[in-house]
Amino acid sequence: MQVANAPKRPLQKEATAYKKVEIGRVLTVGSSIAVISINKQIIRHNQLGMAQIGTILKIMTSRSVVVAMVSSLKIGAVDEEGMNDGCLATLNILGEISTNETTRETKFFRGVRSFPVLNEPVFNMSADDLRLIFNREGSACIEIGHLQQDSSIVAKVRTDDLLSKHFAIIGSTGSGKSCMVALVLQAILAQSPQGHVVLFDPHNEYSKSFGDRAEVISNDTLDLPLWLFDFVETVELLTSDIEDQSREEQEVLHDVVLKAKRLYDRMVAKGEMSSQIKIDDVEAELQRATHISLDSPVPYRIRDVVKLLDHEMGKLENSSNLGPYKRLKRRIASLIADPRYQFIFRNQASPRPIEDIVGRIFRLPVAGKPISILDFSGIPSEALNIVVSVVSRLAFELATWSERKVPILLVCEEAHRYIPRDKSLGFHSTRRIIARIAKEGRKYGVSLGIISQRPSELEPSTLSQCSTIFSMRLSNELDQNFVRAAVPDGAADLLSFLPSLGTAEAMVFGESVNLPMRVILNTLAAEYRPHSSSAQFTDLWNRDMATPELMAKVYERWRARSLLKEDMVMPADPSRPPSTARSVQDARARLRDQQQRPSQTTLHPPQVPSRRPQVSAPLQAPTGGISSQMRERILAKASAPNGKAPALSDVKSMLNNAFNRDI
Fold first, then answer.
1. Could you give the CA distance from residue 326 to residue 305 in angstroms, rounded to a whole number?
2. Model confidence pLDDT, tens digit, residues 156-198
3. SS3 category, 332
4. Which of 62, 272, 320, 559 falls between 20 and 30 A from 604, CA-CA?
């Protein structure tokens, strides 16, 4: 049965009868390289295309057929006729075709046991020879295209070798890299509909590439709570960049986070979810050793962390060093107020179970959607590193505790952004977990797919662990040298023609193919191609697109630091209630306004014309955050019976208590 979104195959040439042609004769032989002199008849009849770079030829020996690939061509020396029209070709020796004397089975083997001798003839390959080399029978394979040398030969990649030992897809912008990623993953999922694939998508390119077989998770729907972070990730998120300050804050967090987990576990066990529990009453109980450790994936609430920080600040022994506590509270408050980090603080009142969170990301159960696409287009780069770190670690732990019964493939698009070569960049936890998966993942059933347009900026050891490399056009010399050092099979010389590869053309090296092969990729159907087109400068610059309406929406999203999908396609609806982040910003703006004018005692700020939705009542609490009971309590206190408005300090206290209780 044909899969609905299976890639289209390119048109194949009609199979023609094989005509054996002598390409040349062996001049010199080494352990891995041979130099041949091209037959003069080939040159005179303008048939040098039969020996172009990347072409596979065979050298006949007395015991086997040696397989070699053309890596370079040059003009030869003056021949016996006094003509300087000879041509020399350098061949990389890759393996041999031989027949077992007992079983009489003819197969291709890597390595050579019987080397060619001088002046032995070199011939072109037949279609049957190429099939014998590239189409290994009895192994699960995916089809990615056709050989450039002979389009009647299907290019196949062994799936188990591809996934169990990691792979990389590299290529310059515009070479067709994104289409190749979609092509390879579609082929894998068509063969394995019960797979578990997670694709990190920084630019929202792949949301339509897999149709209804993909679970697309954007910033608006991503739920990755702080309690799923391990302690190292929590420290990197919440502490300062200054090393001395970070060390102090880390010591504080160690105790506070552990107590917050035990406090929530205690409340769930006793059914006491009230926020009025006093820490003094339960502190001794929180100090006892329990089954909960610092890295246990046990829920806790951020408001309990803030409450515990306040409690620790009030202790006499900490009164002389309050800096770490204050810095942590400021950092937590800034993250909560930033809408880009809302995926960390969702569902704080009643945390979702780990089965739902992990099950959605890793497709457990699959439910007809074997791939989840994490759309990071609305997430800042520092948050991107956090998400990649947490999801990668969860994948490793899930595979470990499932005893390799749930293999997972992590596909890291734009991998140089979060595992960079420069150790001063990126997120330490991200680099640590991906390096561990690269080295140990195959033992536990976690596979990596590294995608990058700048391999020279990647962490070297990670790329060196990828046993299969799909290399598309690379024009940068640093990138070429970096790939040359990582390419297996002693085929580094074959990378000399990478700058000349066409669009949708690739070289495939490594464990999942018998030989390095130059491939013309299959064509994806238009409806499944990634969103990787560039901006249309000429078209857009010929029209005045910067209308006041458009720029109003741009600035609105800029201020909110959020790319809401509904705001992209329609103007903001004044009747729609303001978002939590915007309500918080408006409330804080009113407080700042009152601080600047202390003589004004009214709680009602002057009306200023604005495009933003106006808050209908003074001191209105965020609709998505503060509960209705707390909101009524604040308003009741604000409307004093004697008609006198409360002081500014009272207003601040009421708002801070409301925010902290609702965190």
1. 13
2. 999 999 998 899 999 888 788 899 999 999 999 999 999 999 9
3. helix
4. 559
- Name the DSSP letter for residue 458: B
Handedness of CA 268, 269, 272, 275 (dihedral sign): negative
Closest CA to 236 of 434, 428, 432, 431: 428
Report whether the peptide linkage leading into residue 488 is cis, meaning its omega lies within 30 degrees of zero. Answer: no
Residue pLDDT, tens place only, 290-332? 778 888 888 888 888 998 898 888 876 777 788 889 999 999 9
Residue 511: its pLDDT value, please? 86
Task: Pull the structure tokens for residue 432.
Answer: 């640590």
Instruction: Classify residue 590 as left (phi > 0), alpha (psi -120 to 50) or beta.
Output: alpha
Local confidence band at 487 (pLDDT 50, 70, 90 cut-offs): low
Q: 198, 448 in Cβ contact below 8 A?
A: no
How far is the CA of 615 from the CAs of 56, 71, 626, 658, in angstroms? 73, 71, 15, 17
Q: Taking the CB of residue 4, how many other CB atoms lie within 10 A of it?
A: 11
DSSP state, residue 414: T
200: closest CA among 369, 452, 444?
A: 452
The neighbour count for residue 574, using CB atoms within 10 Å, is 9
Q: What distance in Å separates the CA atoms of residue 182 and residue 196, rounded to the nearest whole number?
A: 15
Q: Give 63-121 pLDDT, tens digit per residue.
A: 889 999 888 888 876 555 655 567 889 898 888 888 877 777 888 888 888 888 898 99
Given CA atoms 440, 414, 485, 26 in this order, what sign does their dihedral have? positive
| pLDDT value of position 480 | 79
Q: Nearest to residue 238, comparing CAs of 322, 330, 309?
A: 330
In whole angstroms, what is the distance from residue 205 CA to residue 533 CA? Answer: 9
In the three-class reduction of DSSP (H, G, I as helix; E, B as strand; rest coil), residue 397 is classed as helix
Distance, CA of 359 to CA of 502 (rounded, Å): 41
